[in-house]
Amino acid sequence: MLRESGQIAKFWETYDAFMQWVDEERVEYSRNGYELSLVVAEQMVDENRIAEAIALADEVATENSRSTLRLRANSVMGRAIALAPPDAKIPLDILYGSAEGAYYQKDYQAAVDGFRLLLPRLAGTQDADEFGAKAYYFLGLSWSRLHHPMLAAVTHQLGYEDYPDDETYAIKNAEKWQTLAAGFFKRANTDRDLQAFNDEAIAAVSAVGGGGDDLEWNQAKSLNDLARQAAGKHPKAAPGSTEAKAIVRAYQRAADAYAKVKAESSNYEKALVARAICVYESIRFDPAAADLALQLLHDYLDTYVPDPAHAPKDPRERKIRREKQPEAVFYLGRTYREVAKGGDRSAWEKVLSTYDGMLDRFPDQTELGYAAMSYRVEAFVRLQRMEEAEAEYQNMVAIPATKSRLAIAAFTLYNEYRLRTEAAEEPADVLANRTKQAEYLSAFNTYSSVKRWPNLLGEAELWAQLGAYDKASELYQGILDKFSKAKDFTDAYAFKVRLGLVESLLQLRRIGEAVPLVDELYKQRPKNLRVRIAVVKVKAGFLIWDGKQVLEVPGEGTPEALDLATTMAGELIHVADYEASKQDPPLNHYYYPPWWEAKLMQAYVLYQRGKTNPADLGKHKKLVAGLQKQAPDLGEAVAGSRMSKSLLWLLNH
Amino acid sequence: MFLSCSLLLPLLLPAAAQSRVVQVDGSTLSGKLVAATLEQVTLKNADGKSRELAAGDVLQIYPAPLTEMLLKGEAFLKDLDYQNASSAFEAAGNESGDFWVAPYALLRQAETLLAWAQMDRARASDAARAFRSWMDANTDSFWIPRAEMGAAKAMAMAGDVDGATSLMQKLADTAFEKNLGKHVELQVNLVRCEAFLIGGQAEVAEARLRDLVVKLGNAVQDPKAPEGTRSLILNLYSQSQILLGDAIHSKDGPQAAAPYWQGLAKDRTATPNVRAAAWIGIAEAARAAGHPRQAQLHLAKVVATLPASEEVMAHALYLLGEVSTELGDTPTAGDLYRRRLLDRYPSTSWAAKAR
Asked: What pLDDT was estimated at residue A279?
């Protein structure tokens, strides 16, 4: 109250008397006594007796470390320092102790206030070396505890920059700074200022000998992962597009980060190859990157590896060399492949030479070796050296390479033969290419770990076209058995597969198996042309030509079946007539193969009718004789020798 | 033996408050204030004895006891409630009491209007008028230099730069004539520079501030300077350094001021307010150049490591909140900084702006 009422002289008089009494009587303080001390300390603050105020408050805090008086004492100390002029003499060790104490008591805000007051006063003092770096460190930790990561990061940064030579805390500040900066950059990796902030932090850690071998390597790997993620989000981004440019920049950042791994680091050799791979991976978004990828890979393979100074010295280094050298060769070949696909055909030769003998050179790296062989198959195909391509493929089969790589090589060959089949003009060439096409597609389907019905259907149709109806029927049946419930296996495809199966079965003379299928198809699509042809065949039977003789395949043959077959055969002729007239230019039906097929069916139906109905006897011969008058070769030139042989058979039976 | 209550009794007896006088040598005297002129300050102690001090030896007077209306005015002012603060001080100015109550109250009213003018320039004329009126009524008061400096700032803000600088020249002459102390001369110089800057004459302000910064720097280092004035001079030095940066900024833009601020930022012996102003200046330059992230990092340094004044910290938090929001609230949401501003510095002009 004396203080509150401004009676300061009286205040001190009373206090001095009190202290004298305390000394003489050896009084121990109770809480009241310490509270009085704090009142005195506050008065000292008012009188600008800062150092005394702090010392007294510190005494109270020390003696009452477990009571709330400690907090009040800290508050008085804080006020004293806050009000003190910058040049006031303050026992900084006490101030440091108070702030650190607040930290350990988890009063992080008080710790922040204390350390902030301390730091500017340290500058230029003898205490700076003792407390400076440590104060920044704990201030940074306090900010982290208060969930202010940016404030923590800049605190550690300043702690390192102001006290870079502190033996203990320079490295701690640098490492905390770097950890926080890396976190910021990871979450905003396109921010160049954050990247610079992160880079400065890494440099700081390295400067104080921290971070170990892995710091720059790990940073680069993180950036690489980010680049891959970006690429994964827009895998088809066109070169030059906004997305592609962003992806290229991301890979560039990763590559630059790998370039920062020091030569003394145990990760250096890995970083050389990883950098090149980064650049390679950016090629699909920026084809111009291929040059740099080639340069980096050649530098590694042609300069770094052969240099005796870089010979591996221990098991770890040898392991790295064993892994990285073939990996680099592999990516070199892939880079040449990208260059070749981009238009430089001569690069296919480089693919071949790069991958030549890959398995022999690196027998441990079988995966890479098989992949290299499949790329060699592709290169041979692109260079139109088919014999060598097939020979390489056969080598793969003989080893054997993994199924996945065999499937890739087989597909490459299938695709080439598919194109050749389409381009071929001579029937013999068509047949030869189609045969290869079918063989390689079959191989692809065999080696594929996941069978896809469109590919199996493609194979079945090829075999049917080639007359290998046993293979075709097996495939058609297999598709129906395994894929009829697949989501993309629509009714339209189901119909197509059943029809293909029916036609194959008919060709194999397995009429009994075909009949129920034909009935089902006829119910589904009664107007479908191929269904109607199948119906005629199963109802009336038909003729086949096995290359040497004409054979009969009997049908149901009942009067009702024959009636239906007769009607259908007549309709098929009308359809064929109509189709011939619609060709461009319109065709005379004698020059239209489907018309001859329809006529043959009609003739055979009449033949069958003639067997059971005298009214129809011989009608088939009249029909064929009539055809012969108009076309003496009986359609051989238009529909093949099967047609003429079959019609002649009818003429003679 | 524990502390007995009886000894506490004298501490509990109520009695009249006393004025406090801080001298240039650093010592403090208490007593009843009976006179405060440009020549002399007189205190009377409890025994009735008078103590006369040369005005030039007195740094600061804290009159007491403050009346209830004066206390209300101070409380309103602390909460930035300028209207009510002005009214309370005006009312206090009409109260009867010790000789100093009315003039002190009206001086505080003028100073309140000046503070209000910092937020609302339209009040500057009112402030200038209030100071002039006070000066006319208290020609020989100890507080004349204080009033004249306030008047100069208000006049500059109202557009009368020539009037402000003339007034400061007059005050400099008075200070010399009355031997009011070097610290007054330096203060007057600073206010004159500030007037030039407020009045838009940045080039003149910059030139004069460059000289003044050197002078004040020397004064800070002067071992012969009176003990009590050291803090004041250091404070003036800090203010001059900050004003110089502001002058360069006003004259040539934030980018031109950046190198100056960078020099101050690196100086670990600079006061927290100076270092804070430097980092804020660098941040503003970065932001103007389209680098908000750099601005964010510099502002974070202020908030994280400096015990600057409440207004400065509040300013830094305000800008940090803005920039962080601009950056998509990464890595920390701008709102977090705004909340910290409102929680920790509620009575600042920046908190008022944030609300």
From this structure: 97
B window 47-86, beta carbon within 8 A of A:
64-65
Residue A547 in 3-state DSSP? coil
What pTM value is reported for the model? Answer: 0.65
What structural domains and CATH numbers belong to chain B?
Answer: 17-62 (2.30.30.100), 271-355 (1.25.40)
Residue of B nearest to A33 (CA): B3
Best of B1, B2, B3 to substitute, by most chain A Cβ atoms within 10 angstroms, is B3
Residues of chain A with pLDDT under 50: none
Interface subset of B 292-311, CB within 8 angstroms of A: 293-294, 296-297, 300-301, 303-307
**pLDDT value at B113 more than 80:** yes
How far is Cα A275 from Cα A227, in angstroms, rounded to an integer?
12
Q: List Cα–Cα distances, A325 to A126, A305, A331, A368, A464, in angstroms.
A: 56, 8, 10, 11, 48
Q: Is A7 on the interface with B (CB under 8 A)?
A: yes
ipTM, interface predicted TM-score of the complex: 0.82
SS3 of residue A255 by DSSP: helix
Q: Does B7 touch chain A (CB under 8 A)?
A: yes
Q: Which of A154, A177, A173, A189 is nearest to B320 (CA)?
A: A154
- pLDDT (tens digit, 9 = 90+) per residue, A265-298? 889 999 999 999 999 999 999 999 999 999 999 9
CA–CA distance, A195 with A177 (Å, rounded to integer): 13
The residue assigned the tokens 């009664």 is A526
Q: What's chain A's Rg over C-alpha atoms? A: 46
Q: Do A14 and B20 touch (CB under 8 A)?
A: no
What is residue A29's predicted lDDT score, i.e. its pLDDT?
A: 79
Q: How far is CA A646 from CA A233, A557, A597, B291, in A?
A: 62, 19, 10, 88
Of the candidates A91, A92, A193, A102, the residue with the CA atom closest to the CA atom of residue A141: A102
Nearest CA-CA distance, residue B104 and chain A, Å: 19
B306 interaction partners in chain A (CB closer than 8 Å): 116, 119-120
The alpha-carbon gap from A151 to the nearest alpha carbon of chain B, in Å, equals 5
CA distance B353 to B120: 12
Q: Flag whether residue B268 sits within 8 Å of chain A, measured between CB atoms.
A: yes
DSSP annotation of B123: G
Q: Which pLDDT score, from 0 to 100, does residue A4 have?
A: 65
